[in-house]
């Protein structure tokens, strides 16, 4: 557990918190550039760059009580990461907190999804990759297996990937391909239509949004482990968060890689999306 800088505005204690934030400094299955473990600290620092409220949502938004748990342990084995994340996230989900997880690589989404009951949520990802392999480089808990593990737990009709533009032959040729929309279709037909398709496709009312920052074009988010051209623009992602709106119950942002982000722009973007999610959630808080 680290006791460094807390996320900007996270001044609540656990009991009175509406939202629960956890840093997960994990990057042991990264397949190209590593360094995502440094992201929670960089994203927290970047959070001080912004106003807490965003005028486009109205300046009289209710103020969320946010609790920042700090970081969980930086472990080595994927199995240990699964246990470590569940240890912190599962009480917060049980206590009906809105959870925000700051990765780390995308694999940190797997233990979080497993903390929800099977029919309680759907997972929508924003990602350049479909991440639907059974296993990768010898582990079923690789960041290349995120949507497959989610489909096993939630059902394939409760998983949808937005912005995909990198899929292997092995993933496309199976009978149970994870439902997805490409970034090309989003550019051509608009993000509203794609998000509507995703929301109509999943069965559960409640939606957990997992943002792999490589879903966004590397021109806007260069600091990531596996940059993939032809991505979404940040306003597409902002729009997605707003369209999911009151159905959103949790969020993670993953794959920010500070060593590949000397300008800090990618960490700043990640922090701004966390703020967007919190602002949208506060609108629907009763
Ligand atoms: Mn990805």
From TrEMBL:
Pfam families: Arginase
Keywords per UniProt: Hydrolase, Manganese, Metal-binding
GO annotation terms (biological process): putrescine biosynthetic process from arginine, via agmatine
E.C. no: 3.5.3.11
Entry superkingdom: Archaea
GO molecular function terms listed in the Swiss-Prot or TrEMBL record: agmatinase activity; metal ion binding
Cofactor section: Mn(2+)
Residues the entry annotates as binding Mn(2+): 106, 127, 129, 131, 212, 214
Enzyme type, top EC level: hydrolase
Cofactor note: Binds 2 manganese ions per subunit.
Sequence similarity: Belongs to the arginase family. Agmatinase subfamily.
Protein name per the record: SpeB protein
Source organism of this protein record: Candidatus Methanoplasma termitum
């Amino acid at each position: 557990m680290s006791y460094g800088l807390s996320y900007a505005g996270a001044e609540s204690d656990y009991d009175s918190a509406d939202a629960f934030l956890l840093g997960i400094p994990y990057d042991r299955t990264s397949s190209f550039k590593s360094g995502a473990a440094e992201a929670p600290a960089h994203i927290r620092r970047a959070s001080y760059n912004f106003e807490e409220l965003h005028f486009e949502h109205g300046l009289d938004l209710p103020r969320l009580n946010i609790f920042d748990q700090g970081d969980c342990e930086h472990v080595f084995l994927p199995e240990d990461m699964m246990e470590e994340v569940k240890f912190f996230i599962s009480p917060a989900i049980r206590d009906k907190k809105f959870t925000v997880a700051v990765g780390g690589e995308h694999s940190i989404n797997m233990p979080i999804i497993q903390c929800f009951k099977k029919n309680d949520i759907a997972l929508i990802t924003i990602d350049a990759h479909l991440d639907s392999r059974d296993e990768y480089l010898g582990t079923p808990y690789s960041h290349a297996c995120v949507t497959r593990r989610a489909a096993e737990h939630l059902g394939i009709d409760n998983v949808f990937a937005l912005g995909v533009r990198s899929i292997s032959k092995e993933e496309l040729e199976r009978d149970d391909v994870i439902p997805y929309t490409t970034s090309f279709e989003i550019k051509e037909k608009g993000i509203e239509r794609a998000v509507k398709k995703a929301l109509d496709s999943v069965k559960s009312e409640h939606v957990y949004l997992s943002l792999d920052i490589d879903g966004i074009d590397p021109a806007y988010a260069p600091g990531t482990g596996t940059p993939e051209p032809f991505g979404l623009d940040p306003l597409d992602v902002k729009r997605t968060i707003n369209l999911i709106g009151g159905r959103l119950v949790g969020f993670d942002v993953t794959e920010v890689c500070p060593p590949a982000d000397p300008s800090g722009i990618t960490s700043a973007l990640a922090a701004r999306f966390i703020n967007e999610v919190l602002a949208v959630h506060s609108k629907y808080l009763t």
